[in-house]
Amino acid sequence: MALAWLLAQGDDIAPIPGTKRVARVEENTAADAVTLTAEQLDRLSGLPPAAGATHTEAQARMLER
After folding, report:
1. pLDDT tens, position by position, 9-32
2. 36: buried, middle or exposed (CB in 10 Å: 19+, 13-18, 0-12)?
């Protein structure tokens, strides 16, 4: 759903999901065949942004190296 929403944002958007498994590549590619309605796009676009920490403090320090 997230990839389908991104693809619906315009031709200048190119999501680049990372994966190690062929099955996930196939799932990601299938997002191109999903057509979201205007109502679905409005609802998804109206969601609040993600909030909260994505990493612990120790993980964040490792990323800053």
Report:
1. 999 998 888 899 999 999 999 999
2. middle
